[in-house]
Amino acid sequence: MAPDVVVIGGGPAGSISSALLARAGARVRLLERDTFPRYHVGESIASSCRAIIDLVGVREKIEARGYTVKEGLLLRWGAEKDWTINWPDLFGDQVRSWQVDRADFDDVLLKHAAEQGVEVIHQAQAKKVRFDEGRAVGVDWVLDGQERYSAADYVIDASGRAGVLSARHFRDRTQLDVFRNVAIWGYYQGGDLLPRTPRGGINVISSPHGWYWVIPLKGDVYSVGFVTHQDNFLARKPEFSSTTEMFLALVAESETVAELISGGTFQGKVRVEQDFSYSAASFCGPGYFLAGDSACFLDPLLSTGVHLAMYSGTLAAASILSAHAGEVTESEALGFYESLYRNAYGRMFSMVAGFYEQYRGKAEYFWLAQRLARGQYPQLMQSRGAAVAPDSAFASITSGLTDLDDATRSGGAAPLDAMVLATELTAQKTVAAGTPAKDLGARFDPAAPELYLVTEPRLGIGRVTEPATPR
């Protein structure tokens, strides 16, 4: 019998998980508090998202939107000369993604989920998840002032930073002060990118007090933003009469950014967002999964947000389908999900923490990436028919491809010991990525090395009896 699933939130984590579940025959109700389309930042999409978009069957619709095709990034960081990460050069022509209008992009994904059979309810406010003897059994929600209840075999909390479960029910988020940043951004009609930027790539440009992004969107629109620590932002803010004046002054302070948008016209609206990073104590439990920003949030430096949302949504759907079918125990499915999602977050955390130590050169970033990739290179690159290059591990991690590879390889869900590198790269002692998966055995089985993600002939968790692939 197909499972009944309630999904809270219609962003990429919610739309991907619900669409995959519905395609597999599950009965899915999705509760979205807003009416789509709605504005959202996070326009630069990792190439891993393209593989997940293929899996859910929505690529044709995405390509029809005419988004800027993204083939990598260029970093002007610290004392280093410009260095380019070109995905097609490293991984082949099929590895690319897009720079998107998130309001439109998220709307396409959510409408696609509805076409797969998901019951999407807009302006539905999830109030709380009900539990029975420690297991999630449904969601209380409100629509048009009327209180309602939906029973469920499983609940996916994809409510973003609002965190119906982690922030409001369990209250178990750990704030990570090392990334206590503020982002301020706006848009220009017209602009340019640095020479040697891969086609449609993002430019990431460091400064003494933070970093800038320049993202080429369709219609010759450029998203331009600055990220700095909260202390610096608050110290500078009294110098200006408005956030618009502050933004324009910050752009002018970067000779590089000012030159790139010198031929463009500022579009007149500035947004500010506190960019505090956090991680929940656990990402899942009996009958429930936290997906996307509901579980954890990371600094936007390496454009990880949509990747982590789509990746966790895929893992949640696979875990529910296989646990419900009895192919794995629920305890195994929870361990599988927790390990893989926490590994992905910890790996990205370590890379971003390394970048904020701006005195480190790219050789150190590449070395760190090799450790975080657990020695998969050069064998992984050669298996893909790609050239082995010093930046290949870094490119694979920041594009999300290492996470997808981990999920689909036996042994890939093993806890990632290299997460401790994050504390080595920061001045403060903090649990960088939450509790390592290997310490979660008291609540559920750690992911067995023989478990892996399968997508054919259907989505789920596979099991092998041979020894795990050497890592």
Cα end-to-end separation: 38 Å
Tell how many strands the DSSP assignment holds: 22
Number of helices: 16
**Uncertain stretches:** 377-381, 418-443
Main sheet summary = 9 strands, mixed
Which outline best applies? globular
Helix amount, in percent?
25-40%
- Measured by DSSP, the beta-strand proportion falls in 25-35%
Please compute the radius of gyration using only Cα atoms: 21 Å
Task: Please give a handful of descriptors for the protein shown.
22 strands, 9-stranded mixed β-sheet, 6-stranded mixed β-sheet, 471 residues, alpha+beta, single chain
Give the topology, please.
Elements: E1 4-8, H1 12-23, E2 27-32, H2 48-56, H3 59-63, E3 68-70, E4 72-76, E5 83-86, H4 87-91, E6 97-99, H5 102-115, E7 119-122, E8 125-132, E9 135-143, E10 146-151, E11 154-157, H6 164-169, E12 173-189, E13 202-207, E14 210-217, E15 221-229, H7 230-236, H8 243-253, H9 255-260, E16 265-266, E17 271-280, E18 284-285, E19 288-290, E20 296-297, H10 305-325, H11 330-356, H12 362-372, H13 379-383, H14 392-398, H15 401-408, H16 421-424, E21 451-454, E22 460-463
Parallel strand pairs: 1-2, 1-11, 2-7, 4-13, 11-19
Antiparallel strand pairs: 3-6, 4-5, 8-9, 9-10, 12-15, 12-16, 12-17, 13-14, 14-15, 17-20, 18-19, 21-22
Helix pairs in contact: 1-2, 1-5, 1-10, 10-11, 11-12, 12-14
